[in-house]
Design brief:
The model has no long low-confidence stretch (mean pLDDT 95). The protein is α/β, with parallel strands linked by helices. Helices cover 38% and strands 17% of the residues. The longest helix has 18 residues. The strands form three sheets. Strands 1-2-3-4-5-6 form a six-stranded parallel sheet. It has a three-stranded antiparallel sheet with strand order 7-8-9, with helices on one face. Strands 10-11 form a two-stranded antiparallel ribbon.
């Protein structure tokens, strides 16, 4: 990775510290001059582990917090997860490791996001990554978790207000790849980006994912069965990165490969339908992403909105997803 020019390596899991050699991995990454961070749910991230990680060179940890206590525990499926996350932040603080937080937004926690953010500021985060829940795993099984595409009309203004609050608190907001898309708040979210807006999906261009068994993907979030481009036990990382079609798909495709609204969108060439993970685990294909603020605004001007309806349930395998379809319907009459 160092020879390819990688600047930062993030350890993820489950929990990376379940590996007995996780501190050796941290130390080796740092010895190569790369930034080493970790993303964690905070489950049993003890003070002892935090101190050991600091000594090994771990530079920052992002703790996942997806709502206030009841909502977070519901979403995580384990009672006590919320308290564990807060305890992990306290342990990191005591050990001297800077920490951030990441939050998914869905129907279960939507009304709690502002209060949650205030709590995270109070806890001492330096940054906050926010993204929309995707249809992978439980969220694909339990449709009541997923936002309807038209709900981005409410979500984006809310997140824009929280960005203003974050600026006052000197907390950096890092919008996930499925937040925004050339709507009226794009420069609020990404004013530090070139041109003040996001580009297309960075999978296989700016990022790669390495799974525990050595499988390589262009992004760690992409479904394994569809996007593994090779294994480190069989090929050199450089060859997988440069030659595999599964990693080159974002580099080689054109607007002609897009579908639906995204195919004819004004921003098609720049955006290329946004986050491929979001669309693939929702629809079973890429190139058409309904969770787009610009798209929702344009459709509203035409008097319609989009919903999602499940077509095929997930097969019940790890990291699987159900298949949904996009349904357009007339806008309901506004209440008096």
């Amino acid at each position: 990775m160092h020879d390819l020019g990688v600047k930062e390596v993030t350890l993820i899991g489950g929990e990376a510290y379940l590996r007995e050699d996780w501190l050796d991995i941290v130390a080796h990454i740092r010895a190569k001059g790369m930034v080493c961070t970790m993303t964690s749910g905070g489950r049993n991230l003890t003070l002892e582990r935090a101190i050991a990680a600091k000594k090994a060179g771990l530079q920052s940890v992002s703790i996942s917090v997806d709502g206030l206590r009841e909502a977070h525990d519901d979403l995580r499926g384990v009672v006590g997860s919320f308290d564990s996350a807060l305890a992990a932040m306290a342990n990191l603080k005591q050990a001297g490791i800077p920490f951030s937080s990441n939050t998914q937004v869905n129907r279960r926690n939507l009304t709690e996001i502002p209060e949650l953010f205030e709590m995270l500021i109070e806890a001492g985060i330096h940054s906050w990554q926010v993204q929309l829940t995707t249809a992978m795993g439980r969220a694909g099984d339990e449709e009541n978790l997923l936002l309807e595409p038209y709900q981005v009309m409410d979500v984006m203004p809310m997140l824009a207000k929280l960005k203003e609050r974050a600026d006052l608190a000197k907390v950096r907001v890092w919008p996930g790849n499925n937040v925004g898309y050339y709507g009226p708040f794009e420069q609020v979210f990404r004013k530090s980006f070139p041109g003040g807006h996001r580009g297309s999906c960075g999978a296989g261009k700016l990022t790669l994912g390495i799974e525990a068994n050595g499988d390589i993907k262009g992004c760690p979030s992409l479904p394994t069965a569809d996007y593994v481009g090779g294994n480190l036990r069989d090929y050199k990382l450089k060859d997988i990165w440069q030659k595999s079609d599964k990693l080159r798909f974002t580099r080689d495709r054109t607007v002609e490969d897009l579908k639906g609204f995204c195919r004819t969108c004004y921003y098609a060439e720049e955006c290329m339908a946004g986050c491929n993970w979001t669309s693939h685990v929702l629809l079973g294909y890429i190139g058409d992403n309904p969770y787009c603020h610009h798209r929702a605004i344009e459709l509203e001007a035409q008097g319609v909105r989009e919903r999602i309806v499940k077509k095929t349930p997930a097969p019940g395998e790890p990291f699987d997803y159900s298949i949904f379809e996009i349904v357009r319907e007339p806008l309901p009459p506004k209440s008096a």
